[in-house]
């Protein structure tokens, strides 16, 4: 069956600043789990346009070395792919879990784009979906727990982005 979590946030910073902060997000000391992260950049195509680093497509595999004994896996691996279109001022991100796929599938799709409300702001839209399998009648209960976990993780990610933006770019832009 599966559950979905939708998140919408407007950052009061220009698109270029938000994307640059997002691409520098890992690792950071504000997120406890990032202390355990090792990042492996698999593919990157980079060009420089108007003094703005334009990442056309990147694939990032994130390894969390925190042992998850209940799942009997030594680490958690996530794969994240990003596609940036600086001309249209949007960036699409897809991520999914590579670990414990026999128990669950977890996917996220996100978009950063210029805000319709104010072109100097950036909209962030994210949809996460998790489906638990292999637990029989407990699947539904575990999915409910997982949706809470996804929602809290999304809100934490937004708080971290806001703190990074403020730290790297100063106060947000006024209306």
TrEMBL record:
<keyword id="KW-0472">Membrane</keyword>
<keyword id="KW-0812">Transmembrane</keyword>
<feature type="domain" description="PRELI/MSF1">
    <location>
        <begin position="1"/>
        <end position="173"/>
    </location>
</feature>
<protein>
    <submittedName>
        <fullName>PRELI domain containing 2</fullName>
    </submittedName>
</protein>
<dbReference type="InterPro" id="IPR037365">
    <property type="entry name" value="Slowmo/Ups"/>
</dbReference>
<dbReference type="InterPro" id="IPR006797">
    <property type="entry name" value="PRELI/MSF1_dom"/>
</dbReference>
<dbReference type="Pfam" id="PF04707">
    <property type="entry name" value="PRELI"/>
</dbReference>
<dbReference type="GO" id="GO:0005758">
    <property type="term" value="C:mitochondrial intermembrane space"/>
</dbReference>
<feature type="transmembrane region" description="Helical">
    <location>
        <begin position="33"/>
        <end position="53"/>
    </location>
</feature>
<keyword id="KW-1133">Transmembrane helix</keyword>
């Amino acid at each position: 069956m599966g559950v979905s979590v939708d998140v919408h946030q407007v950052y009061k910073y220009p698109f270029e600043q938000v994307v640059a902060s997002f691409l520098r997000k890992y690792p950071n000391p504000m997120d406890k789990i990032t202390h355990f992260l090792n990042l492996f950049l698999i593919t990157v195509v980079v060009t420089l346009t108007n003094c703005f680093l334009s990442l056309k497509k990147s694939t990032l595999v994130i390894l969390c070395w925190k042992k998850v004994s209940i799942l009997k896996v030594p680490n958690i691996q996530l794969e994240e792919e990003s596609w940036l279109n600086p001309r249209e001022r949007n960036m699409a991100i897809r991520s999914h879990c590579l670990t414990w796929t026999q128990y669950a599938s977890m996917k996220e799709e996100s978009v950063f784009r210029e805000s319709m409300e104010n072109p100097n702001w950036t909209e962030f839209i994210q949809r996460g979906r998790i489906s638990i399998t292999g637990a029989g009648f407990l699947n539904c209960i575990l999915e409910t727990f997982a949706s809470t976990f996804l929602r809290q993780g999304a809100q934490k990610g937004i708080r971290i982005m806001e703190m990074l933006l403020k730290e790297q770019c100063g106060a947000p832009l006024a209306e």
